[in-house]
Amino acid sequence: MTATAEQFTARHRETLDRALEAIRERAFWTPYPEMPKAYGEEAATTGKASYDAYLGGPFPLVQPGTDELVGGETSPYGVELGVTYPHPDLDVLLPAMRAAMPQWRDAGPDVRATVLIEALGRLNARTTEIAHAVHHTSGQAFGMAFQAGGPHAQDRGLEAVAYAYAAQTAQVAAAEWEKPQGPKPALRMTKRFTAVPRGIGLVIGCNTFPTWNSYPGLFASLATGNAVVVKPHPNAILPLAITVAVLRDTLSAAGFDPNLVALAAEKPGESLAKVLATRPEVRVIDYTGSTEFGEWLERNAPQAVVYTEKAGINTVIIDSVEDYKGMLGNLAFSFSLYSGQMCTTPQNIFIPRDGITAGGEHKSFDDVATDLATSVDKLLGDDTRANALLGAVCNTGVSERLKKAESVGKTVLASRTVTNSDYPTAEVRTPLIAAIDTTDTDIYTAEWFGPISFLIATDTTDSAINTFRETVTTHGAITAAVYSTDDTVIAKTEEAALDAGVNLSVNLTGGVYVNQSAAFSDFHATGANPAANSALSDLAYVANRFRVVQSRRHI
Amino acid sequence: MTATAEQFTARHRETLDRALEAIRERAFWTPYPEMPKAYGEEAATTGKASYDAYLGGPFPLVQPGTDELVGGETSPYGVELGVTYPHPDLDVLLPAMRAAMPQWRDAGPDVRATVLIEALGRLNARTTEIAHAVHHTSGQAFGMAFQAGGPHAQDRGLEAVAYAYAAQTAQVAAAEWEKPQGPKPALRMTKRFTAVPRGIGLVIGCNTFPTWNSYPGLFASLATGNAVVVKPHPNAILPLAITVAVLRDTLSAAGFDPNLVALAAEKPGESLAKVLATRPEVRVIDYTGSTEFGEWLERNAPQAVVYTEKAGINTVIIDSVEDYKGMLGNLAFSFSLYSGQMCTTPQNIFIPRDGITAGGEHKSFDDVATDLATSVDKLLGDDTRANALLGAVCNTGVSERLKKAESVGKTVLASRTVTNSDYPTAEVRTPLIAAIDTTDTDIYTAEWFGPISFLIATDTTDSAINTFRETVTTHGAITAAVYSTDDTVIAKTEEAALDAGVNLSVNLTGGVYVNQSAAFSDFHATGANPAANSALSDLAYVANRFRVVQSRRHI
């Protein structure tokens, strides 16, 4: 081990131990502050300058087997980034990555974990720079890009490092074994147990959360001794290029081969994810995106362990509520945040057709619909505030679905276009809310990704719970919520959530939203329904990224 | 929880805790004695009587959806068992099994683990009876059937229960989460985390080790809340029928639905394993057997998590040795045990063509070959002892391969047929040893399941290590061994074993054999090479058999 690696190990041992405690105890914890002011005024200036310096030129990343430079990201805010990135000749890059692995394997779980925590700390120090990159590739408003793209993504990375460490150290590294033989001398052996990586991990990034959805797989695979090739979404390369560069620098500083991590940017129409996913060197795959490609990966990469997060139909059941205003405000925020372009945004809102009891008063189905629409309108009435919440639509699919949704059921709230004075060409859209009926299954059993929510009239809360159980079992969901003042209804919904395998939020009326999950405490997705085959993060997410190989001999 | 379940939980907590310590510390431990005398004279008599009572009639097992009785096991010792078993109508049986699951899920990991430890204790008490059933279905000699089919299988079952418990309790069951909000009141929530099962587990048993290879998957799936349908090999049903009956009785006694476990015996030509493996209710599959069907399962059951143990080419490298006689005796025993019908039996023995140094003397390649042949001959010279070691050939494939091997390379030791005076029709065969060359890759890169070993002449030990690394990486292996007095050679072989992902035994010359692995200490297989995609047992073997579902609400 180099002196620098030793330094990292000593410096970050405490953070690792605290993270190990956090994943067990699941109380609130984070080492990475989420408020920009914690990073100081200077960071805001230098971070912006660092981001600006990337624009219009080749990204500073030197990798083996680079055969040309590719790029072409256009910000949802209308800016052409003009950055180019190395495109790999895989027959050169992948062997170079494999060659880097034995030293990393032999370093062991402690060194790997602490070197990666050093890298996360360096990423944290560059949060502002990364925030601008996330903002201009995903279309997230800057405030959200800062939190979700920076500290919250770093949290998820550290969480994965902690789980990987816990799984690899679930048994001692060496043991003495002594088996009694009656009157004869005991049989005695020493045994060594070594965590070995599977091979090269492939992380396929998404457009909407380039860092948040990539860091868990990236750090989990690295922490378990694998090399990782990162294939970003063609329109969200920069945040992951910065990430790869920071990791390569950190690995080099610690005396490891930087080729343990590489970026694989693609040419238009190249389908590089498919090419990489079926390479024999690739033995672990992490993917966030469409159900179609997720299922393709699950079926067509048998040489790899495949972790996917796909589409789902997130569901809310409204039965009754004490704090009606709190519920309306909470849901309005959830519908609006990042224009509903989160895998966690609620889509299907079941409401009894005879209405609900709210704060002791009766509210008809139409009352609730109108009040929800009014809440969204109020929340987004001011354009500055609307822009700060909505961000920008990141692809034309969202706009097309909004158009299509106009003719679905009865429009309770039409989507309007908000002006962004800084970026006049950005498409900023408020949520569309439509009222439909529980018989309109064709509509609400599909995912309408974007700011589109359906208020679904049901006969009773019981029938809503049954439909929830069935639709989530069949079509999947990342999130679910229930509002009820009746413990029996809550218990029934919890039972249905266990059956359907979806995480449930109960009576959210304050500053916690169903579309948010906190690392070290909330599991993101469950892996128990079709929306995802894994969760961020748990033991199942890390334990099969490595294998244990033993050597035994007599003492 | 019933009073009986409470009793089980209190009674077995200590065993569970001790098992949890054992899987971490990996020193010697077992709660199930392996010597028949520990079970007493009476157990021997009553166990035999219980076994005899099954013969020639319907097995006492009442399950939902039984549409006819099937059977037809013939012992490799020539006895027709004449036992019949329930054949399932899956459209009745599987729904009944699913209906049993919510109560089992809600009981939680502690109750599930201790109820299963109770079942293991009951199986342990019936070891003699199970030993006769294993003996007469696998063809294992009685002594081996007793140990491997009884206590060693029970050990592996308990080990899986311990891992399952550890994985499910990796986080608290409930947490309070409090996030500071600067000057505003903190956000406070309670969160509950529930382990939920995947669905119905399918365990596909094998002919040679009906209990040992089935118990890990069976107990791991049950301990994580799943129901399990056991599909035995058509010629090794009885040991698993007894197991299923004991589990059903134990579950009933504890107040659970016995349909959490069911036997699925098949009609000739029905391919019931394929039918079951593709049922949507089946979400976990455990399989031991051919590479062909294992790969079919890995590719054709995308709705399930699939754990397979397949074929491999187990390898020994002989470089040099201090205790030459010890090595010869150790290898002779390994070749002979259960006629080489173990997935762990060494097949490819690499020896430098210029010979080796043994106890300070030079031994030519031919010397080693002759001495190995002599050792096997001596070990099996007495027919009673030979029968006790060899058992009987369990299917005609083994006999056919022995015939084919006669014309491979230079026969160093021919296989002879041993008379079994108790069972004159049993086919009992001693090992065949053939000398070939390292250029004969077509021969030694295939698995020759049975008592067939190749002594492969190599240019140098280094080239043997390289061939070992390459062939195991490509074709897989469950075991590997090296003999060397040179630390550099051992280190190089260990490095190759890490690269190829196979467990290594170094310089075995005494009472530990390469084909044996001890539960709680040795991992069986690694999951890191094509011979198996998982190991018995580790966290990866259990962590994806369940998922965690959370529910959160404000305090």
Automatic annotation (TrEMBL), chains A, B:
Gene3D superfamilies: Aldehyde Dehydrogenase, Chain A, domain 1, Aldehyde Dehydrogenase, Chain A, domain 2. Signal peptide: none annotated. Residues 90-508 form the Aldehyde dehydrogenase domain. The keyword Iron-sulfur does not apply. Keywords: NAD, Oxidoreductase. The keyword Nuclease does not apply. InterPro entries: Ald_DH/histidinol_DH, Ald_DH_C, Ald_DH_N, Aldehyde_DH_dom, PaaN_2, Proline_metab_enzyme. This is Phenylacetic acid degradation protein PaaN.
